[in-house]
Amino acid sequence: MKKLFSNIVDAKPDELRALWLAFVFNFLVLGGYYVIRPIRDEIGAAGRENLPWMFTATLLTMLVANSLFSAIVARMSRRRFLPIAYRFMIANLIIFFLLMRTLPPAQNVWVGRVFFVWVSVFNLFVVSVFWSFMTDVFRTDQAKRLFGFIAVGGTLGAICGGQVTASLVRPIGTASLLFISAAALEAAAWCVRFFPAEFKGRHQDATADKSKANEELTDAEVSQESSENLSPAGDADAEKPIGGGIIS
Question: pLDDT value at position 183?
């Protein structure tokens, strides 16, 4: 199995933890989205004459969301921001669930329109934030080798998310599917927590910094040392604010 995996993706031993976490992370993000995407499409198909207005509302909402995003990330680290962002989305899903279950049909029409706009923004937001995180933690040479495999995780998540909705929409109802999407987002937030700290910069100058004593270490000792260096508690830089402004 190890040989087969090495033929699929060119990953080094110290990259495996980050690779699999990113794979699962992408699976959960896309899976969570594709669970609720059919619900959004159903609402949009029910009122096609309103689609231009709903997409205009999506544009305006995205501009507001991006401004808030810029203001927050300028003051927070990515490791703190991503779980907060995903849990904010979870809170929104719970609110939509309550509204769909309690409001009369006449008012649910407006809930459906707001949900259509929200899911459209959700799609753009959570996916772009995921890949921004990936480009932060992987170097360019790592990205060329590993991003294809990570992207497969998202493809599989999209397939599974659609299948979950198709299988469960009748037994549990449309509104209850929102909780499945919320559970996927919560699991994605935990992937950020366990991601190796400052993975991008750990080995850039490793060869230059090694002493002759370190060169005599066995492969097992080097692997163990690398794992210890990649501990989430390893580098305070991972907790620094991202910085920048709205244009950035």
Answer: 93
